[in-house]
Amino acid sequence: xxxxxxxxxxxxxxxxxxxxxxxxxxxxxxxxxxxxxxxxxxxxxxxxxxxxxxxxxxxxxxxxxxxxxxxxxxxxxxxxxxxxxxxxxxxxxxxxxxxxxxxxxxxxxxxxxxxxxxxxxxxxxxxxxxxxxxxxxxxxxxxxxxxxxxxxxxxxxxxxxxxxxxxxxxxxxxxxxxxxxxxxxxxxxxxxxxxxxxxxxxxxxxxxxxxxxxxxxxxxxxxxxxxxxxxxxxxxxxxxxxxxxxxxxxxxxxxxxxxxxxxxxxxxxxxxxxxxxxxxxxxxxxxxxxxxxxxxxxxxxxxxxxxxxxxxxxxxxxxxxxxxxxxxxxxxxxxxxxxxxxxxxxxxxxxxxxxxxxxxxxxxxx
Amino acid sequence: xxxxxxxxxxxxxxxxxxxxxxxxxxxxxxxxxxxxxxxxxxxxxxxxxxxxxxxxxxxxxxxxxxxxxxxxxxxxxxxxxxxxxxxxxxxxxxxxxxxxxxxxxxxxxxxxxxxxxxxxxxxxxxxxxxxxxxxxxxxxxxxxxxxxxxxxxxxxxxxxxxxxxxxxxxxxxxxxxxxxxxxxxxxxxxxxxxxxxxxxxxxxxxxxxxxxxxxxxxxxxxxxxxxxxxxxxxxxxxxxxxxxxxxxxxxxxxxxxxxxxxxxxxxxxxxxxxxxxxxxxxxxxxxxxxxxxxxxxxxx
Amino acid sequence: xxxxxxxxxxxxxxxxxxxxxxxxxxxxxxxxxxxxxxxxxxxxxxxxxxxxxxxxxxxxxxxxxxxxxxxxxxxxxxxxxxxxxxxxxxxxxxxxxxxxxxxxxxxxxxxxxxxxxxxxxxxxxxxxxxxxxxxxxxxxxxxxxxxxxxxxxxxxxxxxxxxxxxxxxxxxxxxxxxxxxxxxxxxxxxxxxxxxxxxxxxxxxxxxxxxxxxxxxxxxxxxxxxxxxxxxxxxxxxxxxxxxxxxxxxxxxxxxxxxxxxxxxxxxxxxxxxxxxxxxxxxxxxxxxxxxxxxxxxxxxxxxxxxxxxxxxxxx
Lengths: 366, 300, 316
Known about the structure:
heterotrimer, B: MetI-like fold, C: 79% helix
């Protein structure tokens, strides 16, 4: 029984600055939930309120069927992994992991057994006698996780645990964290600003922005059906292209007109949905991966677009081409065997079956 | 072709000369630094050297005034042996040790607790108190020794060596607290939070996390408290007058300087013995102390 | 939870929880500041009882007559200012403190630079040797100086005589004695300046010097445009701090000259000792000490400002 419920939780500092503006979130038992958002969006504050390190201004937080608003962190039965590891520098790896158990007066043999088990899961058995100073960044990260695992807590909390690691190690530890979760299967709340981490780790991703939750959902759903312009722009890399446009009736039915020159047909499946926005100024959202080098395959909903390439960035397995449409920068993801040359016009296919139409006043994806 | 090679050679030669002169400039700067340091070290070491030399001379050799006074011609340890056998000197030494131990322990307990409270927990007015601690450190003993004389008089502690255990902490605690606040503040906040989540209370956090992690600071503060209470001069000078209540610093002067009869050999031997404990401690722990002292200046 | 009956009990328990726990949390928060206050309490008592109270008491004492029977207002201060001996004390204290601090600051700065020049693996041993004066308890080393200055046995005079010069009455003539007292203080205090400046020098990033060198700065320009601006605050803090300590010095003058010849080397502290403790005029002694207060307060104010600025610089 270790669900976490966050109900109408508000955090304000000095009475007026609201870091978290009344959020609701239900986290199921064994679930891996990732809070993601830009810095200052309130994700860390939310996590710290769950941990009991920040007081809750208003609302309720429940862990495993108990309201914990006023329970000190030590009694919440949670474990936390910090960004800078927060290992006790004067203790060996074993003592670091055993500290919480010793304070809880767990009998010695059991402590040993639990630490050994965690060390086996994390493959740090031979490091147990070392001091944190003698460990590499990745090893410290493992010890920090080990310290959480030995406690057998109701909930794991991770506060940007990978952001102090270099890029290669980060990918490796990401896999490691996922593996650990599959092994111990503890309810996990994970905070990061890295949307790739969020997508790869989470059962459900919670996108936060300016103290509110923008959208909650499984990674694929967030990617394919973002609810707001913020989510659409935040999830996916490189970010989605946004172009001001106008929905109009054209030759082949409903069209989207971008600027003066570009008129794109709305795919038949979306016609009904977009009909009510006719003759309104909207924003067209299209991911770079749905803007690729032109093939003459006349699929429905695919339109030919031409623009002069500005910058060409070969990445190996793909090539990014940047260009301008009405002075707005747009990115396309094309085949590495591209003929794109800066300054020359490149024919592209825009796959409008994956288009998003956003209401500019509300930022809602319609 | 030949002209081209000569020019090239010439260029190479000037470059070589240039680099050589740079290197030799550096070398001379280094030699100069060493030479100047040697001069300063000699000047700095003259008084201790002469003190040690005198302590090794007999009274006869000192008063004879024959030959070079800078060296002991017939070195002897008789001054030290006579001193150690003197009951007064034994009192002084034991009193100094006793008072120093008590002062160091009391000062460290007070300042570590207070520094933890001020650096990490905080209460109403705690930042004002931190500033106040620093100001207290700037209050010299010579400003307060007269009112303290009256206060100790009311308490009936004048000419009682234990009065020093009461007043010495005022010399040690402010700076020790200041050092410890610096060390405690440099411990990352996540470490407390990890300890809180691991289930530690504040007292456990202090004992099991903060004190071990801030050990270099504890050592620095302990040395400071030791130095202050071992070497203090004004308070014992003002408050003690019987031989059996005196500590080393004032005892040596009051006991061995009687009228015009100066037993210089013994005075110097006594000051060698009195200076030995701090010198030995510094020889081993100087790095900690300097780090503690300068961290305030370079780290804020 | 498996059987049906336990469910409602559970629900009731959780529903009642908020009220009960709120109290627990309040108690927890209150306990936190109570513990904090308790931990700081010994310090507060110490400062209040043995620093603040004596300081206020000193002001009260300074306004009594010698036998402490009645109140004389500022009479003691007025009396002191009229006395020639005390005017000499004021002069000598200022002369002593200012000249000693300036010399310590300059020599300390030179020493720090010399130390900075030599390879760091050798620095430890040289630093150890140079710190010796500062490590020996001041009262003990001053005894050694006293013996070096002894009128009939002075080892300095032996060297002078050997070189064909007259003996110097080191502590017997006013100005020579004043300079000797300053010299001993400089000898004792310079190492402190050296280690503070050395730490400051080491904290200046090498890139700044490299950037200055590439911009065409020579050694002198590096000193004036990089080193000194970067060290300005530490120099100020160290000088002011030393000014306080030197101004309030007692040990050197007490042991070396005891104020003589003819009370010309007395500092506030030694004079207060003679007047207050030796002659038993507590109120007058307290007044002598209190004359230090304005100068100390001004210096302390600037030290505090310097330290706060330094903390902000480092935080930024």
